[in-house]
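Reading group handout, session on sequence-to-structure problems. Before we discuss, look at one worked example. The prompt was deliberately terse, the way you'd type it at a terminal:

> structure DNA-binding MarR family transcriptional regulator

The input record follows.
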Amino acid sequence: MKFDKATTARSLKQLELSGYIMRTPDSNDRRSLLVTPTEKAVQFYPTLQHILNESNKALLSRLSSEEEEQIIALLQKISQGLNDD
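And the output record:
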């Protein structure tokens, strides 16, 4: 999957300003920055997982279990295709 560098940089900057990540120079490669979650991000993670799980339940609630399996398989196939690029 390809990401726009400018969009990625803006997103990282916003996450850093919000206190969710730290960017530090990579001692092995001066051109790179290491991105690590802060304690604030680690503490927020369970809440985020809960929100995502509830959203998924709501999205899939009108599907039968067979339809749910089909859509999950199709989304995984699409995701793999994006990662292959």
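Points for discussion. First: The radius of gyration is 18 Å. Second: The beta strands are 21-26, 29-37.
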